[in-house]
């Protein structure tokens, strides 16, 4: 089968690699440098397993910027382009998905299109009304940043929002590419599949927010947060996973997906979803105030990324803390090795590339996650990472 994957971010590229084990896959991206890297079997995204997989696995995978030529020979087109949250409309910006759908259907009105981008609830149904007769399928992804390939090879479940032959065929492709047997498969309506993605990520955001508020309570009352969390987690109904305090949930998915779900609720009665969204703002405000209570002259922000092994700091909670500190007039400096060479400022804060200088100049070093690189200045480090893990 000839498969086109449009969008070579961590979702599209990891999926393309998995499918290329058994099929001819062509990745399409508007970034020529990213296309070149994929063709050289170099991963343009930071992922624990993808670089080695691209080099050593027997993959029928190429990349191009030419969508039109790729579509003419494709049996299946997957769309994994960005859908960022728009703060003005309070909805995802789905223009990239709609643009690709329009281009593909103009060239190949009979081809099956599977949308992997995260979209608002009801998006696929509305798109089907715009394109009657087209085969449009939605299938949510459940991938962790920096572990996207692993999660495609070992999926917790395969959800496809289509119970027709096209939906079943696509589910079979994902199962075929997985390294595990007996992968749970759920075929649903498209709108239900869209809701599954947003509700799943909002629950994860809720869990992060809950244990962060446990930590806020512990800090405020001088208690040991880890002891409390350990005791709570021993209840098997709660468990000891996804419970490590942080400065707030962040990354590409959780903040935008929870806000989109809140927008999708509209007039539907709710309290909890609003609280999940607001909890992150409250937590970042508390963290900033707790740092300011130490009366630092210069605060060093160690890493802008959300977690170890990621090169992404979109919507990372530590950026919210940084901005709050700067609004209070405190000098803030940043050490972030993933920034391009020569970048001397980020969010109005000076970038200090030399780690030794960064440590020397900082009165307090703020780290969302502990790093052994800070062991020699542990007395300066402010973190709420009580387990020293993601």
Task: List the topology elements.
Blueprint: E1 2-6, H1 10-19, E2 24-28, H2 32-39, H3 50-56, E3 61-64, H4 67-72, E4 76-79, E5 85-86, E6 91-92, H5 95-107, E7 112-115, H6 123-130, E8 135-138, H7 148-153, E9 158-160, H8 165-177, E10 185-187, H9 190-220, H10 225-233, H11 254-265, H12 272-292, E11 298-302, H13 317-327, E12 331-335, E13 345-346, E14 349-351, H14 355-361, E15 364-366, E16 381-382
Parallel strand pairs: 1-2, 1-4, 2-3, 4-7, 7-8, 9-10, 11-12, 11-15, 12-14, 15-16
Antiparallel strand pairs: 5-6, 13-14
Walkthrough of the structure:
- By secondary structure, the protein is of the alpha/beta class.
- The chain is 42% helix and 14% strand.
- The protein has 14 helices and 16 strands.
- The protein has helices spanning 10-19, 32-39, 50-56, 67-72, 95-107, 123-130, 148-153, 165-177, 190-220, 225-233, 254-265, 272-292, 317-327, 355-361; strands at 2-6, 24-28, 61-64, 76-79, 85-86, 91-92, 112-115, 135-138, 158-160, 185-187, 298-302, 331-335, 345-346, 349-351, 364-366, 381-382.
- Helix 1 links the parallel strand 1 (2-6) and strand 2 (24-28).
- The mean pLDDT is 95.
């Amino acid at each position: 089968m000839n498969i086109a994957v449009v969008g070579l971010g961590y979702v599209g590229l990891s999926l393309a690699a998995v499918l290329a084990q058994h099929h001819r896959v062509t990745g399409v991206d508007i970034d020529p440098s990213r296309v070149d890297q994929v063709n050289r079997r170099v991963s343009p995204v930071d992922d624990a397993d993808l670089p080695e997989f691209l080099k050593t696995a027997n993959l029928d995978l190429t990349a191009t910027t030419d969508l039109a030529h790729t579509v003419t020979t494709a049996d299946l087109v997957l769309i994994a382009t960005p859908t960022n949250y728009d703060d003005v409309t309070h909805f995802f910006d789905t223009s990239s998905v709609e643009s690709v759908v329009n281009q593909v259907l103009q060239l190949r009105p009979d081809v099956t299109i599977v949308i992997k981008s995260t979209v608002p609830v009801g998006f696929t149904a509305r798109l089907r009304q715009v394109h009657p007769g087209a085969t449009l399928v939605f299938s949510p992804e459940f991938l962790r940043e920096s572990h996207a390939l692993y999660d495609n090879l070992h999926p917790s479940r395969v959800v496809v929002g289509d119970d027709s032959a096209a939906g079943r065929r696509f589910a079979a492709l994902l199962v075929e590419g997985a390294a595990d047997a007996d992968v749970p498969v759920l075929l649903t309506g498209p709108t239900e599949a869209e809701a599954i993605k947003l509700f799943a990520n909002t629950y994860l955001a809720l869990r992060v927010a809950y244990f962060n508020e446990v930590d806020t309570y512990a800090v405020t009352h001088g208690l040991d947060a880890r002891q409390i969390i350990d005791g709570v987690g021993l209840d098997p109904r709660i468990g000891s996973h996804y419970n490590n305090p942080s400065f707030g949930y962040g990354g590409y998915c959780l903040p935008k997906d929870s806000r989109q779900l809140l927008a999708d609720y509209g007039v539907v009665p709710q309290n909890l979803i609003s609280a999940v969204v607001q909890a992150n703002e409250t937590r970042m405000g508390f963290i900033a105030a707790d740092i300011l209570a130490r009366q630092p002259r210069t605060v060093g922000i160690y890493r802008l990324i959300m977690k170890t092994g990621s090169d992404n700091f979109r919507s990372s909670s530590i950026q919210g803390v940084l901005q709050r500190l700067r609004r209070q007039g405190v000098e803030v400096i940043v050490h972030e090795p993933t920034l391009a060479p020569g970048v001397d400022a980020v969010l109005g804060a000076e970038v200090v590339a030399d780690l030794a200088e960064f440590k020397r100049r900082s009165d307090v070093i703020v780290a969302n996650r502990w790093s052994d690189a800070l062991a020699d200045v542990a007395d300066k480090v402010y973190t709420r990472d009580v387990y020293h893990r993601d």
